[in-house]
From TrEMBL:
Entry's EC annotation: 4.1.1.21
Family: In the C-terminal section; belongs to the AIR carboxylase family. Class I subfamily.
Pathway given in the UniProt record: Purine metabolism; IMP biosynthesis via de novo pathway; 5-amino-1-(5-phospho-D-ribosyl)imidazole-4-carboxylate from 5-amino-1-(5-phospho-D-ribosyl)imidazole (carboxylase route): step 1/1
Lineage: Eukaryota, Fungi, Dikarya, Basidiomycota, Agaricomycotina
Gene Ontology terms: biological process: 'de novo' IMP biosynthetic process
Record's protein name: Phosphoribosylaminoimidazole carboxylase
Residue span relative to the full protein: 1 to 389 of 548
Domain ATP-grasp: 114-302
GO molecular function: ATP binding; metal ion binding; phosphoribosylaminoimidazole carboxylase activity
Key words, A-Z: ATP-binding, Decarboxylase, Lyase, Nucleotide-binding, Purine biosynthesis
Length: 389
């Protein structure tokens, strides 16, 4: 077993689930996060006790250097990190960084990411760079039509960097809402479903994909993830997996990547965006696959053999527990409902404060059939405000 110590930039729920997987493999983990009780810092691989976590931001060059001094391999649970620091560490030390700083550099700017994917001839909707001026956005509307999705190139998550322009009169509001950030525009994709594929890439470039999942979003936030994807088109799953694998092959460095895609009426698949890390749409792999995305991420970055990505249950769903208010009471109510249902696993992230719209935990349900899955899911949806559908 590798004796390497892993440093993780970011200590939220993804870092927490990576740490939990690390503790099973007895891999030492050190977390960099500004919260001294960040979710990931509450889960400590037992042998890491002598290595104190670092309090600071994953965007702070000095703090990244401090983390780097303690570990052998650096990885991240978020792409909005300071890439310059990673590049310096890459050129001046023997530390392994996964995925590579050049991958993070491409992916963390969504426009640069789209250009990269387009250069590699991967299927994408049309997009254009724009300046944050009415004239420039109007010219994008003229070329790409309405509605138009105006997006922040950087620091986007949970749709908080997107503005759907439905009428040209909204252009000034769209620009002021997205603020001073660099922008680009995407042609509206009239998708019928959103799907995703997690792909794990070894340091030598081998890729393995997980089953295709259907992701259901509510107000831009992932709400439900169903696996496997059900479709009348027998070619769809293999096509989507191939596109996701081909996309991940274009990047360097090891680890898990989340590939978000749109499915159109004609069953065409377009890539929406790629995350260079474990992803919300892969939480289900903990209970439903032979190797979780978190364990496979660790195996990949530590040059251990990758594990099987196969489903080990016929049907599964993941329900995000999104904060309803500053109180955890709604979430606790759903937790109690879940604890009485067979095949459910509750994950609460230990975040210091509950807030409306914040991801506070999730529940995974596994079942012997889609019918049993629906039966098990129904009371959970009914118990949770605003999530009935
Ligand atoms: P994440 O939390 O997944 O990182 P994000 O802030 O990066 O989200 P996107 O994934 O770009 O945002 O978009 C959020 C959602 O907005 C998508 O899941 C999809 O529902 C919708 N969306 C994004 N781009 C388009 C588009 N071009 N056409 C139609 N809908 C879109
Ligand atoms: Mg994103
Ligand atoms: Mg997204």
């Amino acid at each position: 077993m590798a004796e390497k110590v892993v440093g993780i930039l970011g200590g939220g729920q993804l870092g927490r689930m990576l740490s939990a997987a690390a503790s099973l493999l007895n891999v030492k983990v050190v977390i960099l996060d500004s919260g001294d009780h960040a979710p990931a810092k509450q889960v400590v691989a037992p042998t890491a006790a002598h290595l104190a976590h670092v309090d600071g931001s994953f965007a702070d060059a000095e703090k990244i250097q401090e983390l780097a001094k303690k570990v052998d391999v650096l990885t991240m649970e978020i792409e909005h990190v300071d890439v310059e620091s990673l590049r310096q560490i890459e050129s001046s030390t023997n530390l392994e960084i996964h995925p590579s700083p050049s991958t993070i550099h491409i992916i963390q700017d969504k426009y640069r990411q789209k250009e990269h994917l387009s250069t590699h001839k991967l299927p994408l909707g049309d997009f254009l760079g724009v300046e944050p001026t009415v004239a420039s956005v109007q010219s994008a509307v003229d070329k790409l039509g309405l509605p138009l999705m105006l997006k922040s190139r950087t620091l986007a998550y949970d749709g908080r960097g997107n503005f759907a322009i439905r009428d040209a009169s909204q252009i000034p509001e769209a620009i002021s809402t997205l603020g001073e950030r660099p922008l680009y525009a995407e042609k509206w994709v009239p998708f019928t479903k959103e799907i995703a594929v997690m792909v794990v890439r070894s340091a030598s470039g081998e890729v393995l994909s997980y089953p295709v999942v259907e992701t259901v979003h509510k107000e831009n936030v992932c709400h439900l993830v169903f696996a496997p994807l059900r479709s009348r088109d027998p070619t769809l799953s293999d096509r989507a997996r191939k596109i996701a694998e081909d996309a991940v092959k274009t990047f360097s460095g090891a680890g898990v990547f989340g590939v978000e895609m749109f499915l159109t009426e004609n069953n065409d698949v377009y890539i929406n965006e790629i995350a260079p890390r474990p992803h919300n749409s892969g939480h289900y792999t903990i209970e439903a696959c032979e190797t979780s995305q978190y364990e496979n991420h660790l195996r990949a970055i530590l040059s251990l053999p990758l594990g099987s990505t196969a489903l080990k249950v016929p049907s599964t769903v993941m329900l995000n527990l999104i904060g309803h208010s500053s109180s955890m009471s709604e979430i606790e109510k759903t937790r109690d409902v879940a604890l009485a249902i067979g095949g459910t696993s509750v994950h609460l992230y230990g975040k210091a404060e509950c807030r409306k719209g914040r991801k506070m935990g999730h529940i995974t349900v596994v079942a012997e059939s889609d019918t049993q899955l629906r039966e098990r899911l129904r009371p959970l949806l009914l118990s949770f405000p605003d999530t009935t559908q």
